[in-house]
Amino acid sequence: MYAEDTLGLLALGLQTLPSMCWVPLAMLWFSHSEGAMLFVVVMGNDVVVIATETGAKTIAPIYVRVARMSSHP
């Protein structure tokens, strides 16, 4: 999973920046548009995506099996 490791480390490094740091860069790239606002929001929520992915990967297999069994009628 070379791409996942590389992009994950890059995202982890970029999450240390506060969202306000992305505003000037977004304004340069996207001018005054909704794209700039969306870029800042996505970069600010990077932490949530990484935490969710890590949490999903660390679920014990027994819990996955229980969830599958309890969803059958």
Describe the structure.
It contains five helices and no strands. With about 70 residues, it is mainly α. It has one domain. The model has no long low-confidence stretch (mean pLDDT about 80).
Q: Give the fraction of residues assigned to helices.
A: over 70%
Distance between the termini: 36 Å
The largest sheet, given as strand count, sense and whether it forms a barrel, is: none
Structural class, by secondary structure, is mainly alpha
Beta-strand content estimate: under 5%
Count of helical segments? 5
Q: Report mean pLDDT, rounded to a whole number.
A: 82
- How many E-type strands? 0
Order of SSEs, N→C? HHHHH
General form? elongated
Oligomer: single chain
Domains, number? 1
Which stretches of 5+ consecutive residues score pLDDT under 50?
none
- CA radius of gyration is 18 Å
Topology:
Layout: H1 2-14, H2 22-30, H3 34-44, H4 46-57, H5 61-70
Helix pairs in contact: 2-3
List the keywords.
single chain, 73 residues, mainly alpha, 5 helices
Short overview:
With about 70 residues, the protein is mainly alpha-helical.
